[in-house]
Amino acid sequence: MSTEDQIAPLSPKTSPATPTITPFTQRKESNSSSEDNRQDSWELVEDLQGLTENIQKPEKLEGLLLKKRKWPMKGWHKRYFLLERGILTYAKTGTDLKKGRLRGRIDVGLSVMAMKKKSMCIDLDTEDSIYHLKVLAKTRDLFEQWVTQLRHHRTFRQNEITMEPPELLLQSDPTANRREKLNTVNFLDLSECESALLELNLLLKNMEVLHRTFSAPAINLLQVGLFACVSLYLWIKYVFMFEGTGNKFVYMLSCYWPKSTKPIMTQIFSTDQEVLVGSRPLRQQVSSESRGSIPESLSEFFDAKEYLLSGSSSENEASDDDSYVSDVSDSTSVEFCRNENGNGSNCAVMRRDRLPSTRMNESVNLWSILRSNIGKDLSKVAMPVQLNEPLNTLQRLCEEVEYCHLLDTAANTHDPHMRMVYIAAFAVSAYACSFTRAGGKPFNPILGETYECLRQDKGFRFIAEQVSHHPPVSACHCESKNYTFGQDVRWKNKFWGKSMEIVPMGVTHLELPGFGDRYEWSKVTSCIHNILSGQRWIEHYGEMSIKHSTTTGDVSHCKVTFLKSRSGALNANEVEGMVTDSNGRVIHSLFGKWNEALYLGKPPSATCIWRANPMPEDHEQYYGFTQFAIELNELEEGLKPLLPLTDTRFRPDQRLLEEGDIAGAEEQKERIEVLQRERRRVLQENNITYSPRFFKRAEDDSWVSNGTYWDLRKDPGFSKLEIPVLW
Q1: Cα 485 from Cα 350, distance rounded (Å)
Q2: Could you tell me if 549 and 532 are in contact, meaning their C-beta atoms sit under 8 angstroms apart?
Q3: How much is the pLDDT for 215?
Q4: Which pTM does this prediction carry?
C-alpha cells in the first residue's frame, strides 16, 4: 500500500463493453443540518450475492484520475491508474506504471465501494486506507465508464476469490519455485506449515490486510510469515540465532524481494511461537545500519540503559544511576496524599486495579446501522451501548495527562529546546492509551455534564465540561504548580465502509509560567480499521506542529510527524520529530512509536525520553484499559458528597455498563437521551442560549476555564447549589 491515504480521477484509454453488475443500494444524506443538505447522493455497491462460475473476464481500463491526499501534500493529485482483473494499481505516470514503480495497489473485490454522482467521486475503503478518487475531466460519460468497470471488476474479483481453490492460486504463482529454501531443523517441519497455509482464509492473501494478521494472537506466527511470502512472491530465510532455556530455540525470519539482499521485514521468535521482538527478554544492540532494517519494535533498538533525562541533562549527558531509568513512569495503584495544611501525611488512597466486570461480547449488526451512513458525521448517529466502553469523552481527555511528569520535567528544564523535547514527548504520549482501545467508543457526554480528577500523587487537578451539544464540544482545564493545560475539542467521525476516520478540531494550550512560555498544537487524524469484522486496530497520521511563544528567552519550535502505516506494518505507529530554533536550525531529532516510547537523538546512541507504562494483567478482557483509565470512573465514598451531580461518575448508563449490565445500560442510555432532547426543545421554544457553568469563551473563540469550579466546590459546596438534573 502507498503512504498516500486517499485517491482521485482518470481518463480512460479503452472503451470496454458495459456488463451486467451486482445491484447496489441508493441512499440520501440526512437533512438534519445545512451541512448534510449540501451532501449529494451516494450509491453503495453491495457485496457479491451468490456464486457464478461463468462471469466473463472484464476488459482492463487505464488512465489518469485525481487522488486525494490528506497528508502530506494535501489536496488532489494526478495519478495514472490501471484496472485489471479486479485489482486497481496506480503510479505517478503511465511510464512509471509500466516500469513497475507503483504507488499503491487496491483489491477492489475486498473494498467497500461508494460513489457520489453529483460530484463524480468514488470512495474505496480497503481497511488499511481510505481512497477518494475523482475523474480528471468532469464529464458524465467518463465517470459512468469508470463506475461501470469498477463494478464489473469488483464482481469478477469477488467471484474469483470465492470460487477458486487455494491450491490453484498457489499453483498459479509464477515465482513460487524461485523462493529460497528455508534452513530447516529436526523439530520444525516446514512442509506441514505450508500445508497449513492452504487452510488459511483466502482473504489473508491480500497485501492490504496482511500486516494486521502479524499481530493477531489466534494465528500462528510462522504460518503467517510463510503465507505472506508465498502470496507476495517474496523470498524468505530463517536464521538460527541461539538455543534458549528449556529446549527453546530462537530464530529470525527475514523476507526479501526476489534478487534483493536487503530484508524488507524481520521478525524474531522462538520455537514455542513467543514473539521476542517487542518484549523485554531480548535486547538488540544496533549497528550503524539504517533504521529500516532494524527489527520492528523500537523498544528493543538500544541496549538496556534507557534514561529519563532530568531538567539539567543534555542530549549527550546522562547518569548511569538506575534512578534515571524511564520505568519511573510506571503506574501505581497507591496515591499518597497531603493534609489540608500541605504537610506530608501517612494517608494513602488505595485505587482499584481492575473494573467490576469484564467486557461483554458484542451482538450488534454494525453493518445494518452504518451502511446508510457512509461519508456522514457519526456523532449524530445513535449507537447501541454494546459498542461503548465504560468511560466518557471527558474522561478520555483526562487520560491525555497521564504522563504529566513530562510537563513537570519541562517546567524545571532551563534549556528552551530541551523543554520543547519534553513537551513533544507529552503530546505524543497522549495517544498511547488508544493502542488497545480500538474495540470500543467512549460515551458521548450530555450537555452540561462535568468531570473532575484531583490527583495529589501526580500534582494536578483537572476539570472538564461538555460546553456544546450541536456541534459536540468538550472542554477541559488542568493545572498544577508547574503548568496549566487546556483544550476544547470536537471530533468529526466519518465511516467509509470498513474504516472510521476521526478528524479532531480544536487547539491544545499549555503554559509554563515559570518561563513565561506558551505552547499550542492540534491533534492529528485517527482511523479505526476493521470496523465490521476482524480485529479492530487504530492508527494516527499527520503532522503535529507545536508552536512556542515566550516573554523571555529563545523561541523553540517542533514538528512531529505521525507516519501512516505502509504495507506489512513495517513502520506501524512510528513518529518522527525535529526541534528547531527561531532560525529553523535543527537542534534535536526525535523518533519512536506513539504506543511504546520516544527517543532523543539517532540510533544506536539515542536516549529514551518517554516510555509507555506497562499494561495491567488481562487488560484485553477489560476494554484494553490502562491502569490510569481503570481509576478514572472509580467513585470513592469520601468523594461522593464533594462532586456535583453532573459528574460523569454518577451517570447510570455508564456505571451499569462498567458493572456488566448491558440491558440496564441500554435502557438508561435511551432515557438519558430523551431527557436531553426534551431540555433542548425547551431551550429552543423559549429562545434561550445555553451557557456552560465552568467554562467561557476566550478572545480566540476557544473555551477556557472561568476559574469558579474549585472555589464553588470548597464554598458553599455543590450540594448547596442548584444543579441541573441530567439523568
Answers
A1: 27
A2: no
A3: 40
A4: 0.67
